[in-house]
Amino acid sequence: MHIRPRRNRRSPAIRSLVRETHLSAADFIYPLFLHDSAEDMPIASMPGCTRWSIDGLVKEAGEALALGVPAVVLFPAIPESLKTPDAAESWNPEGLVPRAVRALKEAHPELCVITDVALDPYNSDGHDGLVERSPEGELIILNDKTVKVLCRQALCHAEAGADMVSPSDMMDGRVAMIRHTLDSESFEDVGILSYSAKYASGYYGPFRGALDSAPKEGDKKTYQMDPGNAREALREAALDEAEGADMLMVKPAGPYLDIIARIRESTVLPVAAYQVSGEYLMIESAAASGWVDGKAVALESLIGIKRAGADMILTYYAKRAAEWLR
Ligand SMILES: NCc1[nH]cc(CCC(=O)O)c1CC(=O)O
Ligand SMILES: [Mg+2]
């Protein structure tokens, strides 16, 4: 036997020379929850995560930034009393997200602040778009009317100082319309990180608990993608690229590594992947039971997503993983 692959695994030094994929804090986007309260509140449905006050958010983002995490994405919990069928709070310039963006950019100008563009936190129906009922009583998620609201929301975030907006709603045509709106208001430097292939996933359950944003009725299958589909993801990604997206996203990440790999091969744009709340919680709960080594499994899950082709990863582990990788 003269060929022995194990020679390349003999020592940490040799293994580090031949390692094909590297994970670093610079790969991470840190999703952060916030609410309009002076208190930071642990999230029952997502142990290890917090609903931050604006002050707490600024401090947490600063700590992550100091560890090398370059970006955050914001998810607001909006009180039931501010939710309406037209989701008007989503474009309130004095709303929670614009105030948080201003506070973050003032404290950490070098931090990349990304905002989520979708209506579910603001919509009394809990859907990502505006809802109408057909004469037969069926729920209809209105595409084009929703896109108009998303444009107002994106503009409001850009005016507050967001570096990028990230539409997570899966309405058709919203990237082009948001791009047009931002450009016509002189925000041509504000980027769009588009959730291009976002699947109708059971893995979002804990997140909806964290924000009380679950749909009041029905599901999201008329806008989020069917988990069985891969070619359709390529179509969605190509459309978002043609509409002017700066980065494309696949979500969830772990169960969709093939989609990440195929989109990676189909475009030269940067590809992001979102390790969602259910993926995070499966690791956390197994670790809390002592069934797996949480740190080892979390880092392995992240390097797997990177190896599949993601240039960046949205992960609730961002800050902890940055610490582990230091
Ligand atoms: N616009 C909704 C949105 N944005 C991010 C997530 C899920 C993130 C996670 O589970 O971590 C969701 C939930 C959903 O689509 O129902
Ligand atoms: Mg689309």
TrEMBL record:
The keyword Hydrolase does not apply. Transmembrane segments: none annotated. Keywords: Heme biosynthesis, Lyase, Porphyrin biosynthesis. Its EC number is 4.2.1.24. It is an enzyme of class 4 (lyase). Pathway: Porphyrin-containing compound metabolism; protoporphyrin-IX biosynthesis; coproporphyrinogen-III from 5-aminolevulinate: step 1/4. It catalyses: 2 5-aminolevulinate = porphobilinogen + 2 H2O + H(+). It holds the Pfam family ALAD. CDD domains: ALAD_PBGS_aspartate_rich. Homooctamer. PANTHER family: DELTA-AMINOLEVULINIC ACID DEHYDRATASE. Belongs to the ALAD family. This is Delta-aminolevulinic acid dehydratase.
